[in-house]
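Dear Dr. K.,

Following up on our conversation at the group meeting, I've run the structure prediction for YbjN domain-containing protein from Planktothrix agardhii. I'm pasting the input sequence below exactly as I used it, so you can double-check it against your construct before we proceed with anything downstream. Let me know if the numbering doesn't match what you have in your notebook.
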Amino acid sequence: MFIDNTETVLQFLPIDRELIFREDSDNLLVFKSIAIALNKKPNNHYDRCCLKLHISDEQYQNILNNQLFNLKKDALIPIKEGQFKPGLNLDLVIELRPDLLSQFSECQTNDAIIDHLNTAPANTDSDQQLNYTENWYCLIVEQQQETDVIRYRTVWDYLKLSAAFNTLNGASEILQSLSNFLKETFNQIETDEIENDHSNGQISLDTNNFIKFLQTIDPDEDSEINQSRSISEVMQEFFSEDDWEFVEMEEESILQMVFEGDHGRWTCFALAIEENRQFVFYSLCPVNTPPEKISAMAQFLTKVNYGTTIGNFELNYSDGEIRYKTSIDVEHERFTTGLVNNLVYINVLTMDKYLPGIMAIINNKLSPDDAIAIAESSASEQE
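The predicted structure tokens came back this morning:
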């Protein structure tokens, strides 16, 4: 079986073995039909370990209800539309936390890895135990039905776990992956649910198991910086006082919200990077640029950026995603809600101003100069 996910194509090899996981020190989960996929670096060290578990519907309901393997029902997004049928078996693809892969350093075969998993002790320090479900992340759930395969992805399949567990270098990749996931998620959720159902955790993500790794750099307790308020605290205060509806993610270090301007509606992210005392705000364009119009869009955004004093547009050449970024570094300064206010509203108003030009390039094949003229004239009409 091949799984084409965010990093590599995984080839699963079946293993005629029984595999035992621990939900906790007392409760065991036994799987009798499994397959394994491993990825090695050039230095012969493992950099990915994924398992495919063939499970009963009863096992799936237990996993879902107890959020085992970090699987949450509200974070599932369909690849192939349809509903799972009760009583039929399913397949789960799960991946091990990358920082635990070093425990396989002496394992040379698939059977050796399964042996290692099955013999791991029931240690109270479950955070480091390979056979505890909390240390595995469900990527895909699928069910073979009579004429089709119904398949769902989770946020973990969008995230590169290696980046998620990289303290210093993963934030940008995580944000990109989350933005892709949330864009597709919003396509599956009715507008009313987006506006009214935040308190019910419609798209909340359980990231507690890896966010601690993003924040392992502790500031000096005696430093002047540490005595000031955290970036996330000020950030959240602004959005609460300004009556924004938002979803907290990653222990409040990322807030996600929806903004509606005169020319469209789009997703926004507010990101607090505490270790560097930085605040970043993104507006994600609701439509990606088609491949054949990437060149024209790049010219348009370059011309727009040339005349922009605060913030800039970014274009992802791989998938055509457009986003507008405003940010600030307050390493030696006091961070206030007033600063957040300026960066947020400059950001969303700029996206709203140039969204007609962006859509004109995508829909009407206008030149970059003509698209800028449309954006400027549209903005003038609003003044």
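Two things stood out to me. DSSP finds twelve helices and 17 strands in the chain. Residues 1-8, 188-227 have pLDDT under 50 and may be disordered.

Best regards,
J.T.
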